[in-house]
TrEMBL record:
Name of the protein in its database record: GNAT family N-acetyltransferase
Keyword terms: Transferase
Domain N-acetyltransferase: 24-171
Entries under Pfam families matching the protein: Acetyltransf_1
UniProt xrefs under Gene3D superfamilies: 3.40.630.30
GO terms, molecular function: acyltransferase activity, transferring groups other than amino-acyl groups
């Protein structure tokens, strides 16, 4: 009888090494993202922009949000999710924003992204908060719809696709 593969733990990125690993994973994954490819055409420049952008996102999320990661047995990060709480606005409801959820290309198909989403959404639901995100591909839009996120703006039309803003109401 085959032995069950143990489920890898989701841990908070509460050390500098884990936060650096999260930033590196975000940069690697988003170097190929359609939105980032449209915004910054040259690969070398895109890498620099992504390092700055996600370095700042990780710092803000560490201070004012949450960063969840999935390391393998050796400590290498396979997946990460970066959430923060935007500045208070007109909304009465506390709202978390998913800046990014990424899975290393060699770890795809193991439901790590879905596990990270469920993990954070359980905590968000427990505090009665809403959640928002920007979906950059049709595949990610479908994934987020499975977790009750709904479009809150116009649906992008191909070939000039752009991010779709989505929201999940409090539970």
């Amino acid at each position: 009888m085959p032995s069950a593969v143990p489920e890898l733990p989701i841990v908070p990125a509460d050390t500098r090494a884990l936060r650096r690993g999260a930033r590196a994973l975000l940069v690697r994954v988003f170097e190929r993202d359609p939105m980032w490819r449209r915004l910054v055409r040259w690969a070398w420049a895109r890498t620099l922009v992504l390092r700055y952008y996600y370095g700042r996102a990780v710092r803000v999320a560490h201070a004012e949000g949450r960063i969840d990661v999935v390391p393998d047995a050796s400590g290498r990060l396979l997946a990460a999710a970066v959430w923060f709480i935007p500045s208070a606005g007109a909304e009465d409801t506390r709202t978390w924003h998913l800046e990014a959820v990424v899975v290393d290309e060699n770890a795809r198909g193991k439901s790590l992204g879905s596990r990270l989403l469920r993990h954070a959404l359980e905590a968000i639901d427990a505090e009665g908060a809403a959640a928002t995100l920007d979906a950059s591909t049709p595949d990610s839009q479908r994934l987020y719809q499975r977790y009750d996120f709904h479009p809150i703006g116009p649906v992008p039309v191909q070939p000039w696709a752009r991010d779709l803003k989505m929201r999940r109401e409090p539970r």
